[in-house]
Write a structure and sequence with these properties.
137 residues, alpha/beta, Rossmann fold
Length: 137
């Protein structure tokens, strides 16, 4: 069971970064909050530019693998956050689940390292805000 489930189409970029940043921040703050991530059409691997951008902030995603979103994952999560499904709603039906929040972030797949850094930093800020809101609930 997870407190937060981050979902994107391929589970190879945005949702992987969000899960990693969320779990690190939760541990650093001594919280028992936990995140998981999945995709509606999982890719073969985490994008290389995402691995590099996360390495720069001390996060190693080399052992992570994209996972398929399941109904059980959704049912067991306290919060479901999609990472940009409104951009590709057909490939990401999770957008239409009840109580889903969409962060509307661009896919880092073909972005430059600078683009991925900007996405990572936005995710980091939103994760900070999310943890603060979960702590107050």
């Amino acid at each position: 069971m997870s407190d937060v489930l981050f979902v994107c189409v391929h589970n190879a970029g945005r949702s992987q970064m969000a899960k990693s940043l969320f779990n690190r921040l939760s541990r650093q703050r001594g919280l028992r909050l936990r995140a998981e991530s999945a995709g509606t059409e999982p890719g073969e691997h985490v994008h290389a530019n995402v691995i590099e951008a996360m390495r720069e902030v001390g996060q190693d995603l080399t052992g992570e693998h994209p996972k398929m979103l399941t109904n059980d994952m959704v049912k067991e999560a306290q919060r479901v956050i999609t990472m940009g499904c409104a951009v590709d709603a057909e490939a990401c039906p999770a957008l239409f689940l009840k109580d889903v929040e969409d962060w509307g972030l661009p896919d880092p797949k073909d972005g430059s390292l600078a683009d991925v850094r900007a996405i990572r930093d936005t995710i980091s800020q939103r994760v900070e805000e999310l943890i603060a809101s979960l702590k107050s609930e």
